[in-house]
């Protein structure tokens, strides 16, 4: 099968980096992600230069501007309030008690007293001053963690399935997630030089044998699981790996490729997409096939238009068959086309008994924000429990926290501790336990409107008709822009920011994470949310084919046109043509 001629990719013989995006030119000239970061870090300024903000991403941070804190300068113009968002590299979201306590301590010192759990099983610090960034990264290093490649055009934090019951089969993928994370970590010494006072080393392209001097066209997300367990939203990743078992050991892997949820409003060339199945390969093929998938994207991905640079566009436009053949050619392995697993998304919130006789406690953290709120000191309460009982910890892809290895004799005391701080351990029953949101305003530079700060109001608003109708809570995810960080496009209900007070509404994703939602309207006003919810939930109750039909399944079955007609009294128009 002939390879396509793609003039926007490195595979084209006549490609010139100067004709591609500015970020591609910056990567080429960065000397292995160094640029002028060290020099600018030493300057007594509050911000890095714009070019260096692109390189900062590879080191695990974004430079941000808190729009709420802007002040007018002497020239009468509004001055930006710069700070950094710094994100950890935590494969599978797994932490020891010691690591968690150190991350909590650093939040108090440098992160405005807040830890934020991410949808990629990591943590973020917001509001970090440039002058504090180096000490924060050194502190993270002290507990054998880092922030390298938590952002940027590389393999980002590797996610994995949850294991609240300490299932030994699920535990097998701990080593797989760690192996993948380590294998695809950038080899440049820039991170150690800039942040950890390492010795300067001259960059050579051969030091990046997988990425090369240009790294990847865009971010690359990987998830790892046991076939059938989708507690990580596997299909939203660029590459999904699902292990199969034989006699209690891993004998091979299903591979999936081309997932990703970001899009751009009014740009039909961008869209969310779930990963496509490539097939099954034996266990020994893990690294070879993973490298082949990543290097195919490296060589053929779009390097001219960053909005069109994810692997999903290459696969959608060139075809799964072409992509599968190219991966087989590069890896030396042939995919076996097996029957697909049946996917489930098991519950993890609340208390569960593990197979070793200990307990796990799944804590719901609204929008992943761990801080001491008035009347609800979540950060302090968790810190005190972790310090006293020393559980292991896993961050979830739904922005929650699981404490594992808890002795049964401590259950009552832990419950009393949390309840005494106003923190409910009830695992089910409301939208709050099924909700995700991105930070959005005021710090995210891409945010169009509110998400995290507006989420509690949205949940209160939509919970009313659910309670009135006696219905269970569907999953709901909310973002302040179309980039999809909180995965709204695969939720039963997705709200995507369009403008201040206006959201696109997506309905019909599946609980199992195997189906995208459909866009019903791009112009739902926030003030109409309660009435829209009442219309939709009433129809669900009246028309569901059985009492257990999930809202997402109902919405998918009913169809986009029927749902638009149902909501038409609230909408100026259905979805506008892109």
TrEMBL record:
<protein>
    <submittedName>
        <fullName>Sulfite reductase (NADPH) beta subunit</fullName>
        <ecNumber>1.8.1.2</ecNumber>
    </submittedName>
</protein>
<keyword id="KW-0560">Oxidoreductase</keyword>
<comment type="similarity">
    <text>Belongs to the nitrite and sulfite reductase 4Fe-4S domain family.</text>
</comment>
<dbReference type="GO" id="GO:0009337">
    <property type="term" value="C:sulfite reductase complex (NADPH)"/>
</dbReference>
<keyword id="KW-0349">Heme</keyword>
<dbReference type="Pfam" id="PF03460">
    <property type="entry name" value="NIR_SIR_ferr"/>
</dbReference>
<feature type="domain" description="Nitrite/sulphite reductase 4Fe-4S">
    <location>
        <begin position="180"/>
        <end position="332"/>
    </location>
</feature>
<dbReference type="Pfam" id="PF01077">
    <property type="entry name" value="NIR_SIR"/>
</dbReference>
<keyword id="KW-0004">4Fe-4S</keyword>
<dbReference type="GO" id="GO:0004783">
    <property type="term" value="F:sulfite reductase (NADPH) activity"/>
</dbReference>
<dbReference type="GO" id="GO:0051539">
    <property type="term" value="F:4 iron, 4 sulfur cluster binding"/>
</dbReference>
<dbReference type="InterPro" id="IPR005117">
    <property type="entry name" value="NiRdtase/SiRdtase_haem-b_fer"/>
</dbReference>
<dbReference type="GO" id="GO:0046872">
    <property type="term" value="F:metal ion binding"/>
</dbReference>
<keyword id="KW-0408">Iron</keyword>
<feature type="domain" description="Nitrite/Sulfite reductase ferredoxin-like">
    <location>
        <begin position="79"/>
        <end position="141"/>
    </location>
</feature>
<dbReference type="InterPro" id="IPR045169">
    <property type="entry name" value="NO2/SO3_Rdtase_4Fe4S_prot"/>
</dbReference>
<keyword id="KW-0479">Metal-binding</keyword>
<dbReference type="GO" id="GO:0000103">
    <property type="term" value="P:sulfate assimilation"/>
</dbReference>
<dbReference type="GO" id="GO:0020037">
    <property type="term" value="F:heme binding"/>
</dbReference>
<dbReference type="InterPro" id="IPR045854">
    <property type="entry name" value="NO2/SO3_Rdtase_4Fe4S_sf"/>
</dbReference>
<dbReference type="InterPro" id="IPR006067">
    <property type="entry name" value="NO2/SO3_Rdtase_4Fe4S_dom"/>
</dbReference>
<dbReference type="GO" id="GO:0050311">
    <property type="term" value="F:sulfite reductase (ferredoxin) activity"/>
</dbReference>
<keyword id="KW-0411">Iron-sulfur</keyword>
<dbReference type="InterPro" id="IPR036136">
    <property type="entry name" value="Nit/Sulf_reduc_fer-like_dom_sf"/>
</dbReference>
<dbReference type="InterPro" id="IPR006066">
    <property type="entry name" value="NO2/SO3_Rdtase_FeS/sirohaem_BS"/>
</dbReference>
<feature type="domain" description="Nitrite/Sulfite reductase ferredoxin-like">
    <location>
        <begin position="356"/>
        <end position="417"/>
    </location>
</feature>
């Amino acid at each position: 099968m002939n390879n396509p001629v793609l003039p926007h990719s490195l595979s084209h013989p006549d490609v010139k980096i100067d004709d591609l995006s500015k970020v591609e030119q910056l990567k080429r000239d960065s000397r292995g992600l160094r640029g002028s970061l060290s020099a600018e870090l030493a300057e007594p300024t509050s911000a890095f230069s714009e070019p260096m903000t692109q390189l900062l991403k590879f080191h695990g941070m974004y430079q941000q501007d808190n729009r709420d804190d802007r002040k007018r300068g002497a020239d009468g113009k509004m001055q930006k309030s710069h700070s950094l968002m710094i994100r950890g590299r935590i494969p599978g979201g797994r932490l020891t008690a010691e690591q968690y306590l150190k991350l909590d301590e650093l939040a108090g010192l440098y992160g405005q007293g807040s830890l934020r759990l991410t949808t990629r099983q990591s943590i973020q610090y917001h509001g970090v001053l440039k002058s504090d960034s180096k000490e924060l990264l050194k502190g993270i290093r002290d507990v054998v963690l880092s922030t390298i490649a938590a952002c940027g055009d590389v393999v980002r934090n590797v996610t994995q399935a949850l294991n609240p019951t300490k299932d030994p089969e699920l535990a097998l993928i701990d080593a797989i997630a760690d192996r993948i994370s380590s294998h695809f970590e950038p080899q440049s010494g820039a991170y150690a030089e800039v942040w950890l006072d390492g010795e300067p080393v001259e960059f050579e392209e051969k030091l990046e044998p997988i990425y090369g001097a240009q790294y990847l066209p865009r971010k690359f997300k990987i998830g790892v699981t046991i076939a059938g367990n989708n507690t990580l939203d596997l299909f939203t990743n660029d590459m999904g790996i699902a292990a199969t078992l034989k006699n209690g050991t891993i004998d091979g892997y299903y591979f999936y490729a081309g997932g990703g949820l970001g899009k751009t409003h009014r740009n039909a060339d961008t869209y969310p997409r779930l990963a496509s199945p490539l097939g099954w390969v034996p266990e020994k093929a893990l690294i070879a096939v993973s490298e082949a998938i990543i290097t195919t994207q490296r060589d053929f991905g779009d390097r001219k238009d960053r909005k069109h640079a994810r692997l999903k566009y290459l696969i959608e436009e060139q075809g799964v068959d072409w992509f599968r053949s190219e991966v087989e050619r590069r890896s030396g392995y042939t995919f076996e086309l097996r029957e697909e697993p049946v996917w489930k998304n098991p519950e993890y919130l609340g208390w569960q008994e593990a197979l070793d006789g200990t307990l796990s406690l799944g804590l719901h953290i609204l929008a992943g924000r761990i801080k001491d709120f008035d009347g609800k000191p979540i950060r302090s309460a968790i810190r005190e429990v972790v310090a006293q009982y020393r559980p292991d910890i896993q961050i979830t892809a739904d922005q929650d926290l699981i404490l594992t290895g808890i002795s049964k004799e401590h259950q009552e005391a832990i419950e009393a501790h949390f309840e005494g701080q106003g923190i409910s351990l009830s695992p089910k029953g409301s939208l709050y336990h099924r909700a995700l949101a991105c930070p959005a305003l005021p710090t995210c530079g891409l945010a169009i409107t509110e998400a995290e700060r507006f989420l509690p109001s949205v949940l209160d608003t939509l919970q009313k008709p659910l309670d009135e109708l006696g219905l269970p809570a569907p999953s709901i995810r909310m973002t302040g822009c179309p980039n999809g960080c909180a995965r709204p496009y695969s939720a039963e209900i997705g709200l995507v920011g369009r403008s201040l007070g206006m959201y696109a509404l997506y309905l019909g994703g599946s609980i199992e994470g195997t189906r995208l939602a459909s866009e019903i309207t791009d112009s739902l006003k926030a003030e109409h949310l309660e009435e829209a919810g009442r219309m939709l939930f009433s129809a669900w109750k009246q028309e569901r084919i059985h009492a257990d039909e999930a809202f997402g399944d109902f919405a998918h079955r009913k169809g986009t046109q029927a749902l638009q007609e149902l909501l038409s009294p609230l909408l100026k128009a259905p979805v506008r043509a892109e």
